[in-house]
Design goal:
Layout lengths: L5 E3 L2 E3 L3 E3 L8 H8 L5 E3 L16 E4 L2 E4 L8 H17 L5 E6 L4 H12 L5 E5 L6 H4 L7 H14 L4 E4 L7 H10 L4 E4 L3 E3 L2 E2 L4 E2 L6 E4 L4 H12 L6 E4 L5 H10 L3 E4 L2 H5 L5 H14 L16 H4 L1
Parallel strand pairs: 3-4, 3-16, 4-7, 7-8, 8-9, 9-10, 10-15, 15-16
Antiparallel strand pairs: 1-2, 5-6, 6-14, 11-14, 12-13
Helix pairs in contact: 1-2, 2-3, 3-5, 5-6, 7-8, 8-10
């Protein structure tokens, strides 16, 4: 097997695959179980300064090409999340897992993001993911911070000043120009970019004559959004110098390779956990390794950005 290790913001991951936030990241035993599957890192469910109940059911629907959800960022709050992360770290150490731990946060205000980052830093995760891009809570919380470059920069600066940990700012595809938002995050101090969060959408029950989700609209994930995610990562890679965590529609090793060739250094896996299960996510890593062996790649880093056209100097 090729050497699957990758460096991300100076932190070594055993392989490029990462469990995305909001998927199987609700409890310490479940996070540790996923870490034991052979995945390179796990991300906790986004936590806010105060507990949040989320949206009423139905809040998740499996449809023809993935899922649509409006869970509404339900979480137990920061103080409870600190305990969950500490227990996750303890369980991962007991089982000897080399996987990295990413703690995800969100808040209703810039100050709230700073408070959440400072509090979760006490649990000593490897990274803080700054979720400014959830598409299904606009009714309660207003327009996502990721919709505006100035708002993105304000949150990024506040979080950066509140933690000693490297921060990954998670962006939305539901914007006019995601590159402009990525640049604002980078200039404000983001150590890395995560792209993308779910795509805003709706499914209507034609017999009931109304949207299926109680929240009416939600975030689309799964194979349907992979081309959107790949394009977003490709465009961001050409504009920023910080590394990218590519997320969206990854279900196989070949999908993960495609995302890396677009420019991602790490690849997030979310909805595929439904098909593969918490113990099967290592299969994507193995399929990546098989592809690399067949194509002669010694390291995943050799594949990062390969899909980009060469410059004129390289042509020469």
């Amino acid at each position: 097997m090729p050497d699957m290790r990758v460096s991300f913001c100076g932190v070594e991951f055993p392989n490029p695959t990462v469990l995305a936030s909001g998927i199987l990241g609700t409890t310490a035993p479940l996070l540790a179980r996923v870490a034991a599957s052979g995945i390179g890192g796990v991300t906790s469910k986004s936590a806010s300064p105060r507990p949040r109940a989320g949206h009423p059911n139905p809040s998740v629907l499996k449809w023809g090409a993935g899922f649509i959800n409006a869970v509404g960022l339900a979480n137990p709050g920061i103080e409870a999340q600190v305990k969950i992360l500490r227990e996750t770290r303890r369980l991962m150490q007991e089982q000897g897992s080399p996987a990295r731990l990413i703690a995800s946060i969100f808040a209703e205000s810039v100050d709230g993001f700073a408070l959440a980052a400072e509090a979760l830093s006490r649990a000593e995760p490897d990274f803080i993911e700054v979720n400014i891009s959830c598409p299904n809570v606009a009714r309660e919380l207003g327009r996502p911070f990721a919709s505006d470059p100035e708002d993105t920069a304000s949150v990024t600066r506040a979080v950066k000043n509140a933690t000693y940990l490297p921060i990954i700012v998670k962006l939305s595809p539901n914007v006019t120009d995601i590159v402009e938002i990525a640049l604002a995050a980078e200039e404000a101090g983001a150590d890395a970019i995560a792209a993308i969060n779910t795509v805003a959408g709706m499914v209507i029950d034609i017999r009931a004559r109304r949207p299926v989700l109680a929240n009416l609209e939600g975030g689309v994930s799964g194979p349907a959004i992979k081309p959107i995610a790949v394009r977003s990562v490709y465009k961001i890679y050409e504009a920023v110098s910080v590394p990218i965590l590519g997320i969206g529609g990854i279900s196989s090793g070949e999908d993960a390779v495609e995302m890396m060739m677009a420019g991602a250094s790490l690849v997030g896996v979310g909805s595929a956990a439904y098909w593969l299960g918490p113990d099967g996510l290592g299969r994507i890593r193995d399929e990546m390794a098989d592809f690399m062996a067949e194509e002669g790649f010694a390291s995943p880093t050799e594949m990062i950005g390969l899909a980009h056209a060469p410059t004129e100097d390289e042509d020469a």
